[in-house]
Design goal:
Length: about 450
Amino acid sequence: MSQQQILDTEQKQTPLIARGLLLPFALITFCFALWGFANDLTNPLVKAFGTIFNQSAFLSSFVQFAFYGGYCFMAIPAALFIKRYSYKSGILLGLALYAIGGMLFIPASWVGMFWPFCASFFIMTCGLSFLETSANPYILSMGADETATQRLNLAQAFNPIGSIVGILAAKEWILAKMAEFSAEERGAMAAEQFEAVKMADLAIVRGPYVAIGVVILVMFVLIMLTKMPTGKDASNTLNVGETFNRLWSNLRYRNGVIAQAFYVGAQITVWTYTIHYGTEVLMSEGMLEAEAAAKAVDFNFYAMVLFGVSRFVCTFLLKYLQPGRLLMLLAIGAVVLLIPVIGVGGRVGLYSLVAISGCMSLMFPTIYGLALKGVGEDAKLGAAGLVMAIAGGSLLPPLQGLLLDQTNVFISYIMPVGCFVAIALYGFRVPSYSTTHSE
């Protein structure tokens, strides 16, 4: 029996979750659904804010810049806080900031301007940064190292469940209730009428965010009152410079951060402009803009359902396939699917765009688990680097929005092609990296 076969046999026999940690695992896993809800409640708002404020796709994409910028800005402070205190403390602070950001939608809607909403998104995702920096390595620590990537994939499988609820909330609680005026019709309104329609729509937008703020507060109390594990190493000492040097010299980790940045950028560009893409396709079939935009949200929903189902399937496949190999194959599949998205269009392109979500489902948790493999207590700061990589989601959507404004939504999907190529290369090269490999 080969060494790989022995390792595979041991992995099948090792419990996925350590004894006595089922309740903590369940509570932390629910947090994955909570930030999935925020992510996919927000994606459709790029188009919604463009309509409400009658502004360009480029300007509206600053919703994503603010949303994912919060992740990047707070990742290192979150890691230092977690190292000084605990994973549980980091999660509690993250939940508190998440709730505050949601509640700030109330004054933002009263002001009636675009940028206060961006500030609310930023504060909310500072909280999400704490949550992701804490929860991902926390889940990795709740069992044996050999099952860590599979365990994280299981927890991450609940993220798209929250995403699906977020899309439905965006569709039924926001988009379906907004005034049915196209951008052109709003632009032709008198100032007083435009202002009245805008304020009514913003009051609709704030509802789901205030509601999730209340849910987050309940979750805060539950986790605060539950006894949680401290993690494998409760040491509070941290030499930031030495830790960064060790992580940066680790090729598996360093290239994993780069791959993660490309992945998040690809994910957000694919999902953010699905509604734009679907609207263009459906309008070409004779639908009016308002009807086409509402129908296009359904395709975002289909994509998220596929994403969720595929994540469970991929978690099962990881029992039999090496993570890097499966990551590479799915990234190649995403590149192939982008060909009809860009070059064919119509229903074929739209269905291919939805299918890409099936390829993306494995990527974030697998890159995360591969990058942190073998880094030990450096995982707390290493997790921050991987969360900072979410900045890819703040940079690429504005660029795609600018390209969309200058060309069309079909050509704009050139943006994620290079991202998936980079991910495929990381998956291909992972087996050649040792967990301590350095240049």
